[in-house]
Design goal:
4 helices, alpha/beta
Amino acid sequence: MRKAIPPENTADDDDDAPPGLPPLPAGTRNYMTPQGWRALRAELMQLLDEERPRVVEIVSWAAKNGDRSENGDYLYGKKRLREIDRRIRYLTRRLDIAEVADPSAHHGKDQIFFGATVTYADRAGREHTITIKGIDESDSLNGEVSWVAPIARALLKAREGDEVQLMTPGGMELLEVLAVRYPAPASAAAPEGG
């Protein structure tokens, strides 16, 4: 009997994704800033080097205590181990397809690319500021949106002074790009004559 080898990118790949995280568009890389890549890598190393070994030790100890069916340390430990392993698989896959894009490469430019901090005005004249980041690093509570978000897709490639259209549940919204900023390159950010 022959067993079929499943394709690499199956729907199961998203099973380990945290809830609410948008999927990557098919065939694209996982764009992220250098800081985002370092944060994901640090989380993966912490799970592999510290948390997983600690939980394995607890589960091992609890398994030696006899009846596992009513052993809370054992049951909780096994559950936590599955959660850790799921997160490790997820982080490993995301880092494998990561495309690190340094936004400071665009410092001083007025066109919107990945990593830009954009100030725009809506139809009512209200100003909003967002930073376009990777899916795994964006934090909407801090004004960060992923590059696959509708607002980011509408703004990408626009320049200061441009008007872009954004389809919203309430209809077409016209946005005016007021300012585009990028972080300064690391060498330019360092004080001189140290």
